[in-house]
């Protein structure tokens, strides 16, 4: 299939239909467009574009473009399009400099923190006695993952109790405190929570920190740009409300 956006596929009443129009048609169809993204499908869509061109020319010929309903709809859509274009013009005119980015970062460092993370496995059971029994087996070189599969009531048992890596604040307080107060490599418990009794294997953890400016730059830019765009819109509408007469009946 030739990848040439300017390739002319048909000419209808002197107007060209190019491959780019078929590409746009496929894209507009969303997931349904996939079935047309082949040689036969593109031919079918080109035929449909030809038919639409024919309808357009015939509508112009018969004066359908002068129909009152059509004219009103065109005016309505034109107004909405111009409103959207005016708003986009305000938003797209906003720029942020590196100095502004650095100043915003320095004044809002707390917004760019990386939370502490933990990597852990656990075994969850209903009774403290059973939890102590399992902990004793682990202390005597029992296999943590195998014991998790055998005893744990948590769905993570299928992965040997593995909970993966998670941020501080995602687990209940008692569980999290055990992670904070102990070290990497420790197996602690029983730890009581609302869910039962846990034996926890602390595999890894990282300290929380504030991202450097370079690490946070894209995030800072996105945040500051959005704030400035919002302010630009407010400033523009405030100015226009003073410039034009407004009558409210609500």
UniProtKB/TrEMBL annotation:
InterPro entries in alphabetical order: PPIase_dom_sf, PPIase_PpiC, PPIase_PpiC_CS, PrsA_foldase, Trigger_fact/SurA_dom_sf
The record's listing under Pfam families reads:
Rotamase_3 (PF13616)
All copies of the PpiC domain together span 115-204
User: Looking at the record's lineage, which domain of life comes first?
Assistant: Bacteria
- PROSITE patterns tied to this protein: PPIC_PPIASE_1, PPIC_PPIASE_2
Coiled-coil ranges per UniProt: 203-233
Any one GO molecular-function label of the UniProt entry: peptidyl-prolyl cis-trans isomerase activity
Which UniProt keyword terms apply here?
Coiled coil, Isomerase, Rotamase
Q: What is this protein called?
A: Peptidylprolyl isomerase
State the species of origin.
Answer: Finegoldia magna
Lineage start: Bacteria, Bacillati, Bacillota, Tissierellia, Tissierellales
